[in-house]
From TrEMBL:
The lineage of its organism: Bacteria, Bacillati, Actinomycetota, Actinomycetes, Micrococcales. This is Glycosyltransferase family 1 protein. SUPFAM superfamilies: UDP-Glycosyltransferase/glycogen phosphorylase. It comes from the Bacteria.
Amino acid sequence: MRSLAALDAYMLPYRHGTHSGWLELCYELGVPVVAPMIGHWLDQHDEPGAVAGFDPGSIESLAATISQILPHRGNIPRGAIKAQRRARRNAERAAIATAHAHVYESALAAAALAHIGAVREAGATAPT
C-alpha cells in the first residue's frame, strides 16, 4: 500500500469495465488516476484532479492527460487531501445512516399502527 500511496499518479490498464476498486483505493490514498475514457471510471469521482481520462487509442491523449493531472494537485500535501476525502466520506456515511434510521423508524411505526388497528378490528368483531 505504501508503494501505491507514493505514486505521482496511477494509470488504469483496462480496455473495458465499469467500476474500479483500484481507482477507489487510489482516491482514498490521494493518488490521482489516469483512466481510459471507456466504462464509467471517470464518473466514480467528480473531484477535480482525482481522475482524468484519455483516449485509449492515442499516446498523445495519454501524454496530455498525464501532463494535465500531475500539476492539478498543486501544493496541497497528500495528507491533507486524504484527510479532506476521509472527512467527506465520513459525512456521507453519517448522512446515509441517518436516512436509513428514518426509513426503518417510519416502517416500524407504520407496522405498529397496522398491528394495533388489526387487533382493535379483531376485538370488535370477536364473539362475546
